[in-house]
Design goal:
The complex is a heteropentamer of chains A (about 650), B (about 170), C (about 475), D (about 500) and E (about 100). Chain A is mostly helical and about 650 residues long. Chain A has 26 helices and 6 strands. Chain A has helices spanning about 5-30, 30-60, 95-115, 125-140, 145-165, 170-200, 205-215, 220-225, 235-250, 260, 270-275, 280-290, 290-295, 300-320, 325-345, 355-385, 400-415, 420-435, 440-465, 480-495, 500-505, 520-540, 545-555, 555-560, 565-610, 620-640, and strands spanning about 60, 65, 70-80, 85-90, 230, 235. In chain A, a hairpin with a 2-residue loop joins strand 3 (about 70-80) and strand 4 (about 85-90). In chain A, helix 1 (about 5-30) runs antiparallel to helix 2, helix 16 (about 355-385) crosses helix 18 and helix 17 runs antiparallel to helix 19 (about 440-465). The relative contact order of chain A is 0.07. Chain B has 6 helices and no strands. In chain B, helix 1 (about 5-25) runs antiparallel to helix 2 and helix 2 (about 30-50) runs antiparallel to helix 3 (about 55-80). With about 170 residues, chain B is mainly α. With about 475 residues, chain C is mostly helical. Chain C has a two-stranded antiparallel ribbon. The longest helix of chain C has about 30 residues, at about 145-175. Chain E has a single domain (about 5-90), classed as Helix Hairpins, CATH 1.10.287.3510. Classes of the chains: A mainly alpha (about 650), B mainly alpha (about 170), C mainly alpha (about 475), D mainly alpha (about 500), E mainly alpha (about 100). Chains in contact: A-B, A-C, A-D, A-E, B-C, B-E, C-D, C-E. The interface between B and E is large, with 81 and 73 residues.
């Protein structure tokens, strides 16, 4: 049986770190705060691994299926009978898996940052923020209540805001952090309303009950909810769709992805942690968490999810081919990979063989966490060395950064889906699932995988090969042990993670899913991947003008892709023109002039009247007498003739 | 049928109203005073006609002997001899006339509509029982008003002295 | 003890003081200061005397009537006079005719006493005149100021005019009812149109004295023209007394045609509040300002009167009591300032708080009380007036009254702002306040703060008026 | 526990302040006084919970009833339920913070603190009185101190603002007055809330009186479109003044809207509920959008107050138990939050001598503490979980969603949209002031918060977090009281 | 109805009353205004006497009222004249139009 305290400690230790470092780090702990934070996280990672072991190999499996456990559930805020926000710990395959991923990657980043962020002015603050993020993310993962997940959802949002804006005196960083927060916030609005709808129609906020009520078609909740429709779609459909919007926002799905590239303004380790491995997959996790509802009650929404995922995947891939900022390239690739996970869920069914997409998605999430974190950390090492994000400043670094080079290569191979690296296995499963359910998406996915391979190796070659690197000034060597250790560990993960029999552990219905491997099927993707690699090799191995030519040849498409298909501009137009000029300004004006004007008007009118009637008081006693007499006569006539 | 008393009445009425009108109309202030005097006399005459000799006497004594004289003195004090009074603005006059006319019409309408229950016994009171009443404190007696009047006259006297006999600042 | 003495004690005491002063004057006279202190003592005695031997009864047939409530009202008036004698000490010491001044004021007071307890139109009329003519003379007491005599002239003429109309009304009333005693008139009233006419004529006399719109026009000019002592006397004492007798006349005599006067009161109350406020809005001279504000206050009194029952009586008496304190405090401060610096304009009050915090606080208190802001007593006074008036559930009527409270608050705040907030390079210099004035101001302040919270005052009045 | 203590403590403090000789005395006396009030508030909370724990379920606890105007049946009738307790806690928090932040006031210190304490007195009295008349009395007490605080110690066009505030509030109380008298007469000459809540008032009268009372109190709590005193008043007032104004006085209004208008006139409430909802929804969105355009920090907070207070009115209008609970939570939360916000603005202003966001930048470098607090309050205002704002707003939403018809749904969604707009303007404000490069180099010499400021901020932050982390206790306090109200509305 | 009676006298008195009022409203000289007042009061007296004679002869209220009114009139006139004279002293005119410093 799960032990509540052990599991509770996993998120609480980082929280402790946050408080400790946040309150005292700046003044007292100073540079030691990094070690403290890391130590705390190490503990909780160990606990997480222990929990995972316990769950998967000791008590988790009951008669052939992994069960849900809720070792702890506290009522946090009760709205009415049965409807309450609970703080709970929910253990099931995906949560445990995420637990491991999050804590592990976070630990890596902690260690890495010891080197990368050394000497930063707000070192302690940095680590306290990391703690906050890790806490929130773990809480999100473990949430047993849809409102709990929303709470931690917001918390990860804010910690990401804080970390993106870590270099707060860089205007671009500030802007990026604001953008990230507001865009996700906008998506969260959908999430919130979705929660309201779902909870109202199911009469609960608790995941288990909610899913169980909404998935049984004969339950009266579903009946009533299905009856009440809005714009032709049932309440449940709306609810599910809105919830997905929340997820899409966090996971930077098209068209809510615009914040992710800018988010790269944050320190690179942060990007690795938040914007590659963990937070951005929260959306996927959310969909997975509510998968039964999507799959059984609102398949339409699942369809949408599939398409959104696919589109995001390919668009991001295309854009990634044209960018020059290495972190942005990685960001787009992240987006594209998450697109994979999304449509994997989208094409999946509930239970049994048909649930392959689900497993695949989770699997890809797992592997992607490894190699993408690795990529970012590697890129971080490069940037650390070059002091620039722009790959045009780079080239021929393989001699100067050997370890980074190797690990980076591994990661690239992994993401390109070259066997036997991790990416290969998960991607294969995804493609298979798509193949089985939705041909169109399958083709998109296939093309995307090719593009992926291409732009990754474009990156790889331009950084490490291409033009020779000329050393100006004395260069400190590759970052120290603290930075190399995570690279190595992650490289191992990226290389080996594929061999985990994932289906054994994670599947839509908890029962084991044997993923059998078809060689003939995997020819196409691998082939495309290799093609992409060779294309990159041909274009970027040596310094030459082929790329420019190619770009010129592609013309408009290239330009559009280079400008990210002008989506940012559209957003800018909407916010600046519509929100500010068409709503905000008029509102402010209306308030100052109309509403306030009314108030002042009354005052001035009174004044004016009083000025106007002052002549009555003319100072002439006979005038007074006339008024007097008139008063008498009027009153008399009034009361003799009129009012009786 | 027209008796002497009737004629007398109308004469007195004519005198009163006529002189009244003249006294508010003329622009010679002395004449105004004199017209006022005659108008008051006319009223006194009406009292006589009504057989309220005592009131008539008082009227003559107080008004003719007192107030009008006072007024005339004050005219002497304040008026540069013989010049006419300044004309009033005509709009003021019009409004006043209008108001007055309305008031008069209104009053008369009400008064004539109302049926005053005329009593037959029209005996006039004698000076003696007026005197008795005046100083009796029991029901229907007028001692209290008498006292009040005395206080009032005292106050008025003091007031007049203070105001009219204004002493130069340095004295006292 | 002799009934005559007990029933008429207030009047007798006042008369005694008047004659004492007369003899002093005729005799070798006294120095102003000592005379003033003597008078103050006498007035205090008069005030205290009011609390003993209260009983109910008629005198002189039924011409004179008194009861504990009436005695209480008289006490309020004498209290007011006493406070005035303290507050305006500075001005009084300067005047050359101190004895005469007090003789006049006291005879006016006597007139008011008689008016309050008059039970008969004749007495009422005479008392009214006794309460008016001397005041007119007093209004002229700044002998060498033109404005003073102009004010006096305006007062005497218009009051003569109004009393002429009053008399005509009385005569008509007498013609239709054949009597001049309140009780019998009430029995005789049949609401015939002549009687309505007569009532309107009669009504205007009260309206004139209470300065109800449109019979109010003399008020401001006279208040501004006359010395502050007189102004405060006019605005507080005579208003109060007329309000009292007004209630008696309406409730006692004209009860049969109450629906007529109820409507009349409502109309005039609204008119009075609105016009008074609108005029007060723009005033610069503090006396004139207070004149118009007091007109607006009268509007509220009418609201209270309009409820035709003992609640109304209680509310009005209570309000007048509070009004005495508030208005006298305001006038007191005004008189102190104008005596020492000759400044009577609100703009010249700017920055007063810097130099004279005490005066500023008292004035502010008084104004808040007039505006009906808690915790000052004015709040309770106004509220109870409205409560009484609301008994007929004429919500719009109360609403208008309440809205007028806003306007009034605006201009009261103007003064407060001038004193506390506005900058001024040459404010009123520090004023050395003589002890008697300080005492009086403190009394007023205490009254303003306490009378509201000491609910037994209200309950006492209530018990008195409830007995009627 | 004797409720008179709650009035007595501030009263004594005020008197002591008046009698004190020098500025130091004044300050320390008022500090001690406000600490005492805080202690009393906590004692009250404790006692209240004890009573409830020994399930003493009578609606009002610690009732006192002294005769005041016997003949008019006006009594000093005091008593508290959960709502009052919560409000009193809020008040005591804001008071102590207000006293602390105005520590360095130089001009007429004595008067300043006297008026401040007087305001507090009014609030305490208001929250514990169960007699309409007394309640109105305490409500009115606070008008003049506000006027003077703004007019004397304020900044900008202070006279104008002070006048506007005083007059508009007076207008509100005029309406209240009429409604109050209406109640008094229809309910057979009684001002007693408990009695009134038992009497059934004919529907037509309710429909007549409800608007009077609701709008009357609504003016105090910035009911759209009668909110215009808020921006000017807040922006002109001194720091503590704004804190009290937004933190306490606006809550008087909300409390009145609920406890008097809605509770005593349920039929009227049902009649006008939709109008209230529309108005408050407008206020929420419109306030938020108007805020987006502001440059002056105080205006930003003032307008956002309009928007936030809209939530509590919305909750009341929704007429469900949860929504009303949420409304009350929002009052408490917003009280603490906005007080803190104004405190921070004041601190910034004292240093930079500007409140224009575009004239600052990068303050985080020079005053980390203040900016941290600024972050916290900002995040609270945009409804970050773990801070009070989130709890309140979510409760309102959940409650609003319980009415399942389209109208309420739309209104709720409209209101919910504001959380995005809020995020926009809060982040703009923070971004421009705290983050970014330091634009004005003279800011480099500025000092961080002094002890009193730190203390004040910490107290309020503690309150915010206490609600945000563990809303249960507040919920337990408010929900039963809301239930009583709902029972009357439901006609049980 | 030639025969003079109550109503005739009432007519006379009312007429006189309003004549007086007219005078009061239009005369610019203070003393003449005072005279108009006297006319008003006399008309009232006439009313009282008439009523007393024709309607309520058995009591003498009207008569006494008249007496006291006459007395009052005297007092009032005295004070009024005193004030007027004082006003005349302070600015050599008794034109009511000139006495309007106090206004608005």
């Amino acid at each position: 049986m799960p032990n509540a305290t052990t599991i509770a400690l996993i998120p609480l230790l980082p929280l402790a770190g946050f408080l400790l470092l946040g309150l005292f780090g700046r003044k007292y702990l100073k540079s030691s705060s990094g070690l403290i934070g890391t130590a705390l996280l190490l503990t909780s990672t160990i606990l997480a691994l222990y929990t995972a072991y316990e769950y998967f190999f000791v008590y988790g499996k009951v008669n052939g299926a992994y069960q849900q456990f809720i070792p702890l559930q506290l009522t946090w805020l009760e709205f009415s009978k049965g409807v309450s926000i609970d703080m709970g710990l929910l253990l099931d395959p995906i949560s445990v898996m995420m637990l491991v991923v999050v804590s592990f990657i976070s630990l890596m980043v902690h260690i890495y940052s010891l080197g990368y962020m050394k000497g930063e002015e707000r070192f302690a603050t940095y680590y306290s923020f990391l703690g906050l993020f890790t806490f929130s993310m773990l809480g999100l993962v473990l949430a047993s209540n849809i409102f709990q997940i929303y709470i931690f959802w917001e918390l990860v949002g804010v910690s990401s805001f804080l970390l993106i804006g870590y270099y707060y005196d860089k205007p671009s960083a500030v802007a990026a952090s604001k953008k990230a927060f507001i865009v996700t916030r906008f998506a969260d609005l959908g999430f919130l309303i979705g929660i309201l709808i779902l909870s109202f129609s199911s009469g609960t906020l608790d995941f288990t009950t909610l899913i169980q009520r909404l998935t049984s078609p004969e339950s009266n909740e579903v009946k009533t909810a299905v009856v009440s429709t809005f714009l032709g779609a049932s309440a449940l459909t709306w609810g599910a769709a809105l919830v997905f919007i929340g997820g899409a926002g966090k996971s930077a799905m098209f068209p809510l992805h615009i914040w992710l590239p800018d988010a790269m303004e944050g320190p690179t380790p942060v990007s690795a942690l938040i914007h590659a491995a963990t937070m951005v997959v929260a959306g996927v996790y959310l969909v997975a968490r509510l998968f039964p509802v999507f799959a059984l009650t609102t398949p339409a929404v699942l369809e949408i999810i599939g398409w959104v995922g696919a589109i995001s995947a390919i668009i991001a891939a295309v854009i990634a081919c044209t960018q020059t900022d290495i972190k942005r390239i990685l960001a787009y690739s992240t987006m594209s990979q998450i697109g994979y996970m999304m449509f994997a869920l989208g094409v999946s069914k509930y239970g049994g063989e048909a649930g392959l997409g689900y497993t695949a998605s989770m699997f890809h999430l797992f592997t992607h966490a490894m190699f993408k974190a690795l990529l970012f950390l590697g890129a971080g090492a490069v940037i650390h060395y070059i002091h620039s994000n722009d790959m045009r400043d780079m080239g021929g670094l393989r001699k100067y950064l050997p370890i980074t080079h190797i690990t980076f290569l591994i990661a690239c191979l992994a993401i390109a889906g070259v066997p036997p690296f991790a990416g290969f296995f998960s991607k294969e499963e995804i493609l298979l699932a798509a193949y089985q359910n939705n041909m169109a998406i399958y083709w998109i996915a296939l093309i995307t995988s090719g593009l992926t391979a291409f732009y990754m190796f474009r990156l790889y070659f331009t950084i490490f090969w291409n033009k020779p690197h000329e050393v100006h000034g004395e260069k400190h060597g590759e970052g120290g042990f603290a930075m190399m250790l995570p690279l190595v560990l992650l490289a191992v993960g990226a290389a080996a993670a594929g061999f985990i029999p994932f289906g054994e552990f994670v599947s839509s219905d908890g029962k084991a899913l044997v993923s059998h491997f078809h060689l003939e099927f995997s020819i196409a993707p691998v082939g495309l991947g290799l093609a992409g690699i060779f294309a990159a090799l041909w274009l970027y191995k040596k310094q030459n003008d082929k790329p420019q030519k190619l770009a010129a040849a592609l013309g408009g498409l290239y330009k559009a892709a280079y400008h990210k298909f002008y989506i940012d501009e559209i957003y800018l137009f909407i916010t600046k023109k519509v929100l500010f000029n068409l709503i905000g300004r008029p509102a402010a004006w209306f308030d100052r002039n109309i509403v306030d004007g009314m108030v002042n008007l009354t005052g001035n009118t009174t004044q004016a009247v009083s000025e106007g009637i002052k002549k009555i008081q003319s100072g002439k006693v006979q005038q007074y007498a006339i008024y007097f007499l008139a008063g008498v006569i009027v009153l008399a006539t009034l009361f003799i003739y009129v009012l009786r | 049928m027209i008796t002497g008393s009737t004629i007398l009445f109308y004469l007195l009425a004519a005198l009163t109203l006529g002189c009244g009108i003249l006294s508010v109309a003329t622009r010679h202030i002395f004449r105004a005073a004199i017209y006022l005097l005659f108008s008051l006399i006319g009223i006194a005459g009406l009292y006589f006609w009504l057989q309220y000799e005592f009131i008539a006497a008082v009227q003559i004594v107080v008004y003719v002997g007192g107030i009008v004289v006072l007024i005339i003195f004050s005219i002497f004090l304040t008026q540069q001899a013989g010049e006419k009074l300044p004309k009033q603005k005509s709009d003021r006059k019009i409004f006043a006339a209008l108001a007055v006319f309305c008031g008069f019409a209104l009053t008369m309408l009400q008064v004539y509509q109302h049926e005053f229950n005329g009593a037959e016994t029209t005996k006039a009171p004698t000076v003696a029982d007026i005197g008795k009443k005046m100083l009796s404190v029991d029901n229907g007696g007028y001692a209290l008003p008498f006292e009040i009047i005395s206080m009032l006259l005292l106050a008025a006297m003091v007031g007049c002295i203070v105001i009219a006999l204004r002493s130069k600042p340095e004295t006292k | 003890m002799n009934e005559f003495l007990t029933l008429m004690k207030s009047e007798l005491v006042v008369t005694a003081i008047i004659f004492l002063l007369l003899f002093i004057k005729i005799g070798k006279g006294m120095k102003n200061d000592s005379l003033l202190s003597l008078v103050q003592v006498l007035l205090l005695v008069n005030f205290i005397a009011g609390f003993f031997f209260n009983s109910t009864g008629n005198l002189f047939g039924d011409m004179f009537y008194t009861n504990p409530l009436i005695t209480f009202q008289k006490n309020i008036l004498s209290l007011g006079v006493y406070l005035i004698s303290l507050l305006c000490a500075d001005w009084l010491k300067k005047t050359q005719h101190l004895a005469e001044f007090f003789m006049l004021m006291l005879s006016a007071l006597l007139g008011m006493f008689l008016m309050i307890s008059s039970n008969n139109l004749l007495i009422f009329y005479l008392a009214l005149e006794l309460a008016t003519i001397p005041v007119a003379a007093m209004a002229n007491f700044d002998l060498d100021k033109k404005r003073s005599s102009e004010g006096a002239m305006k007062m005497i003429l218009s009051s003569a005019f109004s009393s002429g109309i009053l008399l005509f009304g009385i005569s008509l009333l007498y013609g239709t009812t054949g009597t001049i005693s309140f009780a019998e008139i009430a029995a005789q009233l049949d609401g015939s149109s002549v009687q309505i006419l007569a009532f309107v004529f009669l009504f205007t006399a009260f309206a004139f004295k209470l300065s109800i719109v449109p019979f109010h026009l003399w008020t401001a000019d006279v208040y501004e023209g006359s010395p502050i002592a007189v102004t405060s006397f006019l605005s507080v004492i005579s208003k109060g007394s007329v309000a009292f007798i007004f209630i008696t006349v309406l409730y006692k005599v004209f009860q049969p045609i109450q629906d007529v006067w109820y409507t009349m009161l409502v109309i005039l109350a609204v008119a009075t509040m609105v016009i008074g406020n609108l005029f007060a809005l723009r005033q610069q001279n503090i006396k004139r300002f207070l004149a118009f504000s007091s007109i607006a206050q009268v509007g509220f009194i009418l609201v209270g009167i309009s409820s035709n029952d003992y609640m109304g009586i209680t509310a009005v008496v209570y309000f007048v009591l509070i009004y005495v304190f508030s208005n006298l405090a305001a006038f007191g401060v005004a008189s102190v300032i104008s005596e020492h610096s000759g400044k009577e304009n609100i703009d010249e009050y700017k920055g007063l708080y810097k130099t004279n915090p005490f005066l500023s606080w008292i004035l502010a208190l008084a104004l808040f009380s007039l505006a009906g802001i808690p915790p000052t007593a004015g709040f309770f006074g106004k509220l109870f007036l409205l409560t009484a008036g609301g008994a007929k559930a004429a919500y719009w009527f109360i609403a208008v009254a309440a809205l007028n409270m806003i306007i009034s608050l605006y201009y009261y705040l103007r003064v407060v702002r001038a004193m506390f907030m506005d900058k001024n390079e040459n404010p009123v210099e520090k004023i050395k306040i003589s002890p008697s004035v300080k005492l009086a101001l403190l009394i007023c302040g205490a009254g303003i703060v306490l009378i509201g919270l000491l609910s037994w005052v209200y309950d006492h009045i209530h018990s008195l008026s409830f007995k009627l | 526990m004797n409720l008179l203590l709650l009035i007595g403590a501030p009263l004594l403090t005020a008197v002591a302040v008046l009698l004190s000789r020098n500025k130091a005395q004044v300050k320390w006396i008022s500090l001690v006084g406000s600490v005492a009030q805080l202690a009393l508030a906590f004692a009250l909370l404790y006692a209240f919970r004890q009573e409830r724990a020994q399930n003493n379920m009578s609606q009002m606890l610690f009732e006192l009833n002294y005769k005041l105007f016997d003949s008019l049946n006006i009594n000093f009738h005091f008593g508290v339920d959960g709502i009052s307790v919560a409000m009193i806690l809020l008040t005591s928090f804001v008071v102590i913070a207000g006293v602390l932040v105005s520590w360095n006031i130089e001009k007429m210190t004595k008067e300043f603190y006297f008026l401040l304490i007087l305001l507090a007195l009014g609030a305490y009295g208001f929250f514990i009185s169960l007699d309409l008349f007394i309640l109105f009395f305490f409500l009115e007490i606070s008008v003049i101190p506000k006027y003077l605080l703004i007019g004397i110690w304020g900044s900008g066009k202070k006279e104008y603002s002070a006048n506007k505030l005083a007059l508009m509030l007076m207008g509100g109380s005029a309406l209240i007055l009429v409604g109050m008298l209406g109640l008094y007469f229809t309910a057979g000459h009684s001002f007693d809330i408990m009695t009134l809540s038992k009497t059934s008032i004919p529907a037509n009268i309710q429909n007549l009186l409800f608007p009077l009372l609701f709008v009357g109190f609504g003016v105090f709590t910035a009911l759209f479109p009668l909110h215009t005193w808020v921006p000017d008043g807040h922006s002109s007032a001194p720091t503590a003044g704004s804190m009290f104004l937004a933190g306490i006085s606006m809550k008087l209004g909300g409390y009145g809207c609920l406890r008097i208008a809605t509770y005593l006139l349920p039929e009227g409430a049902k009649e006008y509920a939709n109008i209230i909802i529309v108005l408050s929804a407008i206020a929420i969105l419109y306030g938020a959008f108007a805020t987006m355009m502001q440059k002056d920090l105080k205006y930003i907070n003032a307008y956002s107050s309009v928007s936030h207070v809209g939530f509590s009115l919305l909750g009341i209008g929704m007429l469900t138990q949860t929504a009303i609970t949420g409304a009350l939570m929002q009052m408490v939360s917003h009280g603490l939050m906005t007080a803190l916000f104004f405190a921070v603005i004041g601190m910034i202003y004292d240093r930079t001598h500007t409140r224009m966001t575009n004239e600052m930048g990068g303050l985080m470098k020079v005053m980390p503490f203040i900016t941290t607090v600024f972050f916290i309050v900002g995040l609270c205002s945009l409804g970050l979980p773990g801070l009070s704002g989130f709890v309140a707003e979510m409760t309102v939403f959940m409650g609003s969603w319980e009415n399942s018809d389209a109208f309420h749904r739309v209104a709720t969604i409209a209101a919910a949209m504001s959380i995005v707009v809020t995020a926009v303007y809060i982040l703009r404000a923070i971004g421009q002031t705290a983050m970014g490069p330091i634009t004005n180099t003279s800011h480099l010499q500025l000092k961080d918060a002094a002890w009193n400021e730190k203390l004040a901020a910490i107290i309020l932050v503690a309150g915010i977090i206490a609600i945000g982390i563990a809303p249960g206790w507040l919920n337990d306090l408010l929900r039963p009281a809301a239930e009583e109200i709902m029972n009357r509305i439901a006609g049980k | 109805m030639i025969e003079p009676g109550l109503y005739h006298i009432l007519f006379i008195s009312a007429a006189l009353f309003f004549i007086g009022i007219y005078g009061f409203l239009t005369r610019r000289n203070l003393i003449t205004m005072l005279m108009s007042i006297e006319l008003i009061l006399n008309s009232v007296n006439l009313n009282f006497i008439a009523f007393n004679k024709y309607v309520w002869p058995d009591k003498m209220d009207g008569l006494f009222f008249t007496l006291f009114i006459i007395a009052i009139a005297a007092a009032e006139a005295a004070v009024a004249i005193a004030i007027i004279i004082n006003l005349y002293r302070s600015h050599q005119s008794i034109d009511v139009e000139n006495a309007e410093d106090l206004k608005y």
